Fold this sequence. Notes:
CATH architecture of the largest domain: Orthogonal Bundle
Number of helices: 20
CATH class of the largest domain: Mainly Alpha
Number of domains: 2
Radius of gyration: 23 Å
Helix content: 55-70%
Mean pLDDT: 94
Oligomer: single chain
Shape: globular
Order of helices and strands: HHHHHHHHHEEEHHHHHHHHHHH
Strand order of the largest sheet: 1-3-2
Amino acid sequence: xxxKLKKFKAIVAEAADLYRASEILGWDQETNMPPGxxxxxxxxxxxxxxxxxxxxxxxxxxxxxEELESAIDQFDPDSDDARLIRYIRRDTDKKKKLPSEMVxxxxxxxxxxxxxxxxxxxxxxxSIFEPHLEKIVDYVQRRAEYYKPYDHIxxxxxxxxxxxxxxxxxxAIFNGIRPKQVELIEAISxxxxxxxxxxxxxxxxxxxxxxxxxxxxxxxYDFNRGRIDEVTHPFAATMGYGDNRLTYRVxxxxxxSFLFAVMHESGHAMYEQGLAKELDHTPLYEGASLGVHxxxxxxxxxxxxxxxxxxxxxxxxxxxxxxxxxxxxxxDDFYKAVNKVEPSMIRxxxxxxxxxxxxxxxxxxxxxxxxxxxxxxxLPEIWNTRFKxxxxxxxxxxxxxxxxxVHWSFGLFGYFSxxxxxxxxxxxxxxxxxxxxxxLEDQIRKGDFTALLSWLQDKVHRHGKKFExxxxxxxxxxxxxxxxxxxxxxxxxxxxxxxx
Length: 500
């Protein structure tokens, strides 16, 4: 059995490495590749992902998997090997439903679509991206046919990012928290508004980057195993053990675009820097799900980065770096500014109280597209109408509206809901970590994040994808994904800030 396990893991490693090679090309596509390389890059990535898919769905791997499953009782059920066998069974059963030609087709579609999205966003011209998205939606709808039967056409794609969850479950969670968030936002709107003009001063790009590097280094991001690069839309990516990268964008006239985004992406990157080395070269070497991943980025961005204890520590350093911009602005004034609640156009710059509404809008649009209720050509109008209904404001152009997110150009249908789920999970984890580290706030006031990161690495990070998200959340917090702690947190924090 040991030899069979060894051979099984060797094939899995080859498949995982081919996928990682494609990921490296994807990172380069975003950071370095000239626009003219999009078509060729799509073909190359298509080849790699096709080969990876064929490895996972080969007869040899299937035979070895069956033999190992017959002896699964010999393994510790929580061991890396047992969890890998179970994961590969679930994953290959799904992969086998999809012909390798469909995998290659997607990889070829996306680089030109992404380049078109970049141009469309720059020119604020939906018509440039529209034909590419039509092809992607058609592809996603055709792909869904291979996964029948399902409860909802969206289920197979949600499952790619949040394994085990169903569309109806996410809709139920969102329906439970939406009215409570709307009620809070309405209450805040009746109070005197916070002055956040300090955030809109001129902050030179180089100094912002130095500040961000300083902060995330203190958080625990290891630059010996990571790097930071500029892109159009920030993201984090892992190429393998010891190679975890994050990206950023800078607006010299709005601090939040860089500051909180770099905290956010460092949360993703530190999660993967904390993965157990033993899981490398397997599909378990990544986060449990995008929802769990997002819980880590939102924890560092919001629960740490927007907290009063954090700014009690960092604001004097910030004032020293930016004395002119912060002249006459007290710690309390700055803390209120970075936590101002106000409906805004851009998701990645949205405050904590309104953020989830951005996600609910995108979920409705994605479901409408896959169900055939919405047409791609109508998306700008649909977006603007529903944005007004959700947030009370209307985008001035397509760039700050329907073109603001990169995800559809990468074919990432099923992805958006995980952002809001991550918010909920982050608060469940935060309650638990504060119970285990009672003086956590005092540590943050001193700029000491060692215990926090160590706790996260032990309870969450090291496990990678060994456990499905609901199982991991329950192991860590004692309950499955629940919106209660999140709503409690919002009401307490913003009740105090706005005197509710």
